[in-house]
């Protein structure tokens, strides 16, 4: 993926660039808002990571300018402010995701990859497939190798999110935000419990495990181990 | 504080100055107008007398007119009037000899009067000089009639009046100054008390309050307000000090741990696996630190009062329903049963995320501290427009003497030190409760703990 990072903190930027590059992405960096907007307007990026507070021009106005110019590249907004309404504001001007500093790099990476997938939605919206796991969104039915799997409504949403991001790492925070719509981090392993219950339902009794735990990062639903 | 620096005294001074200026101005104009008027009146009298005497002269002839003039002059002196008849060489024919000295060489016109002012002390009963107004007119081709008048009596009256008025003005100015001093002193004594009280408060890090005056007035009201402010500042300082202490304690130790671990690892070459292990441990520790930071941030947000436009109608029933479902599995995993009896919808105004986080913290606490086979209960009911939300467990509970302590930041009772957590959970609950004007109380569940939140102002269905 070709990523544009607009971030004025050069040290923080260098780590992010290193991490993203090592994860197989191509990263361009702009250190202020003006230069950032100029680069963003070229439109040759798959995703942009934009810090909110920048010299010359603030992050939100860059996003607004991009959207006004009909550039729909997914944008992840970084913020040191972190108030609840800031998130709302960030998403309102056209940001696709919002991450508050300080954050873990694994969290950033997971969100970036989730966004790249979001910009290329699957062809069939009614059915999701991964190996022999099949989800029918219309009938609310899940089968694995033709065997019916009974899921609670929330488990269904959890699996749907994982399947839409199959092959990617999703963090616990992303699951909380997307599946349960909570913006806080629980102090307990409550997400792990839900995952393990889901795993029991979709993996137990099958040769190949699909739902993997990625240490220190989150979970991934994929065919490969 | 110095008297001169008080507002009241300055106002009194300004008032006195303005009053004095106006009075002096008024007096001066009265003085000059009166003076002018006096002169005109004198002239009118002189003119009248001149005409009267001329008529006499024409009727009586020079002999009896001379005796009339002598007579007039004799009596007229008591009224400061002087008379004389002179010829063209200023030789006295009748009347006042002294008057003759003051006649100028100016020629008297053929028609009308010649009017002149002279300073002299012609008056018999006075040594001071007075203004003498002299009128001259021709009686015939070789005779002149001279009539003069000093302004003494009128001038004296004017002077008396003026000095009386001046006295009044002076007294008024002095009184207003005295009043200014008195008022300033009185106000200053109040202000000084408050000033002193504030200084004491500053010196004592806002722990001391200002003594409230007994009299019910604006100073008392001000003092009460100031005391409220001082109390709030004191609370904030205490809170901040507490947080700083605890941040220092709770964040410094994990930071030191991470640093030490990394330092020791660097002391000598290790295998790649060893590096990996140490680094992943460091990453985990940092993750915990981030969680603590975020918890602190949430509390700070709640205490600062999240902007009102984030507030919505929150259906507590739905919120609890979802959280119960969220934590049901975790409770079961810990061999606990989670009871939740869903009531009719109860709606309040609030911040959905903060409320969810609050209940989440309470449920996690309950799950953490309740031993296996225990029971956790979520209760919600509405009574008299008050939403009563309780999270109850069958855990060890909190002793009465510990109850105030568990609400403090980073506070963890000794028996909880070993379990994971940062001790910020209940502080957030408290901050969110305060933000929503809800009361927070801990009660005994016999056995176990009940945390009760009472939200006022439930929105009834009709209001939606």
Summarize the SSE layout with pairings.
The complex is a heterodimer of chains A (225) and B (464).
Chain A: E1 2-6, H1 10-22, E2 26-30, H2 33-41, E3 47-51, H3 59-68, E4 75-79, H4 84-92, E5 97-100, H5 105-118, E6 127-130, E7 133-136, E8 141-144, E9 147-149, H6 153-164, E10 169-170, H7 172-180, H8 190-202, E11 211-214, E12 218-221
Chain B: H1 7-60, H2 62-76, E1 81-87, E2 92-95, H3 97-101, E3 113-120, E4 130-138, E5 143-150, H4 152-203, H5 218-267, H6 272-304, E6 312-315, H7 316-333, E7 337-340, E8 347-350, H8 352-369, E9 375-383, E10 386-392, H9 403-406, H10 425-435, E11 439-444, E12 449-455
Parallel strand pairs in B: 7-9
Antiparallel strand pairs in B: 1-2, 1-5, 3-4, 4-5, 6-8, 9-10, 10-12, 11-12
Helix pairs in contact in B: 1-2, 1-4, 5-6, 6-10, 7-8, 8-10
Account of the 3D structure:
The complex is a heterodimer of chains A (about 220) and B (about 475). Chain A has helices at about 10-20, 35-40, 60-70, 85-90, 105-120, 155-165, 170-180, 190-200; strands spanning about 1-5, 25-30, 45-50, 75-80, 95-100, 125-130, 135, 140-145, 145-150, 170, 210-215, 220. With about 220 residues, chain A is of the alpha/beta class. Chain A folds into 2 domains: about 1-120, 3-Layer(aba) Sandwich (Rossmann fold), CATH 3.40.50; about 125-220, Winged helix-like DNA-binding domain superfamily/Winged helix DNA-binding domain (Arc Repressor Mutant, subunit A). In chain B, the strands form 3 sheets. Chain B has a 5-stranded antiparallel β-sheet with strand order 2-1-5-4-3. A 5-stranded mixed β-sheet of chain B has the order 7-9-10-12-11. In chain B, strands 6-8 form a two-stranded antiparallel sheet. The two termini of chain B are about 60 Å apart. Chain B has 3 domains: about 5-155, 2-Layer Sandwich (Beta-Lactamase), CATH 3.30.450; about 220-305, Helix Hairpins; about 305-464, Histidine kinase-like ATPase, C-terminal domain (Heat Shock Protein 90, 2-Layer Sandwich). The model of chain B has no long low-confidence stretch (mean pLDDT about 80). With about 475 residues, chain B is an alpha+beta fold. At the A-B interface, helix 4 and helix 8 of A face helix 6, helix 7 and helix 8 of B.
């Amino acid at each position: 993926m070709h990523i544009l990072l607009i971030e004025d903190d050069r040290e923080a930027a260098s780590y992010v660039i290193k991490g993203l590059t090592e994860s197989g992405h191509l990263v361009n960096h702009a250190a202020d808002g003006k230069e950032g907007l100029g680069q963003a307007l070229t439109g040759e990026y798959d995703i942009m990571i934009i810090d909110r507070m920048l010299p010359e021009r603030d992050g939100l106005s860059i996003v607004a300018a991009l959207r006004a110019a009909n550039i729909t590249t997914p944008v992840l907004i970084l913020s040191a402010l972190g108030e609840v309404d800031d998130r709302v504001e960030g998403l309102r001007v056209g940001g696709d995701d919002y991450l508050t500093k300080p954050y873990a790099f694994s969290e950033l990476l997971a969100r970036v990859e989730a966004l790249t997938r979001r910009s290329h939605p699957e062809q069939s919206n009614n059915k999701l497939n991964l190996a022999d796991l099949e989800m029918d969104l219309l009938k609310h039915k899940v089968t694995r190798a033709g065997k019916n799997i009974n899921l609670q409504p929330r488990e269904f949403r959890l699996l749907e999110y994982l399947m839409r991001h199959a092959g990617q790492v999703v963090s616990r925070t992303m699951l909380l935000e997307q599946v349960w719509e909570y913006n806080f981090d629980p102090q307990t392993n409550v997400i792990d419990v839900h995952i393990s219950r889901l795993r029991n339902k979709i993996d137990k009794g099958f040769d190949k495990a699909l739902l993997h735990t990625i240490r220190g990062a989150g979970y991934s639903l994929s065919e490969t181990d | 504080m110095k008297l001169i620096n008080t507002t009241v005294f300055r106002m009194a001074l300004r008032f006195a100055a303005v009053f004095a200026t106006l009075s002096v101005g008024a007096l001066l104009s009265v003085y000059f107008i009166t003076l002018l008027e006096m002169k005109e009146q004198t002239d009118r009298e002189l003119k009248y007398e001149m005409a009267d005497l001329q008529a006499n002269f024409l009727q009586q002839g020079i002999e009896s007119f001379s005796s009339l003039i002598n007579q007039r002059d004799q009596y007229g002196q008591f009224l400061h009037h002087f008379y004389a008849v002179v010829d063209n060489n200023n030789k006295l024919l009748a009347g006042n000899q002294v008057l003759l000295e003051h006649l100028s060489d100016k020629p008297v016109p053929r028609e009308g009067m010649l009017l002149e002012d002279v300073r002299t002390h012609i008056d018999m009963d006075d040594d001071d000089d007075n203004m003498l107004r002299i009128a001259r007119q021709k009686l015939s081709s070789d005779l002149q009639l001279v009539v003069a008048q000093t302004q003494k009596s009128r001038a004296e009256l004017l002077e008396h009046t003026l000095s009386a008025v001046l006295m009044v003005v002076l007294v008024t100015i002095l009184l207003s100054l005295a009043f200014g001093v008195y008022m300033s002193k009185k106000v200053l004594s109040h202000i000084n008390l408050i000033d002193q009280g504030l200084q004491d408060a500053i010196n004592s890090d806002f722990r001391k309050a200002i003594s409230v005056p007994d009299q019910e007035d604006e100073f008392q009201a001000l003092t009460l307000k100031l005391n409220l402010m001082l109390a709030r500042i004191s609370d904030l300082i205490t809170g901040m000090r507490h947080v700083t202490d605890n941040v220092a304690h709770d964040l410094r130790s994990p930071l030191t741990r991470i640093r030490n671990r990394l330092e020791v690892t660097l002391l000598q070459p290790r295998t790649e696996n060893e590096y990996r292990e140490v680094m992943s441990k460091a990453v985990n520790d940092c993750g915990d630190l981030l969680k603590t930071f975020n918890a602190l941030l949430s509390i700070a947000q709640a205490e600062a009062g999240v902007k009102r436009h984030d507030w919505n109608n929150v259906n507590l029933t739905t919120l609890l329903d979802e959280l119960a479902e969220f934590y049901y599995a975790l409770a079961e995993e810990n061999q606990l049963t989670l009871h939740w009896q869903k009531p009719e919808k109860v709606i309040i105004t609030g911040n959905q995320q903060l409320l969810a986080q609050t209940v989440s913290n309470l449920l996690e606490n309950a799950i953490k501290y309740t031993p296996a086979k225990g029971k956790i209960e979520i209760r919600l009911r509405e009574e008299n427009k008050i939403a009563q939300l309780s999270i109850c467990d069958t855990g060890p509970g909190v002793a009465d003497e510990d109850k105030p302590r568990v609400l403090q930041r980073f506070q963890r009772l000794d028996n909880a030190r070993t379990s994971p957590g940062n001790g910020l959970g209940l502080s957030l609950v408290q901050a969110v409760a305060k933000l929503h004007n809800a009361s927070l109380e801990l009660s005994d569940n016999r056995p176990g703990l009940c945390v009760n939140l009472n939200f006022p102002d439930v929105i009834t269905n009709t209001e939606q």
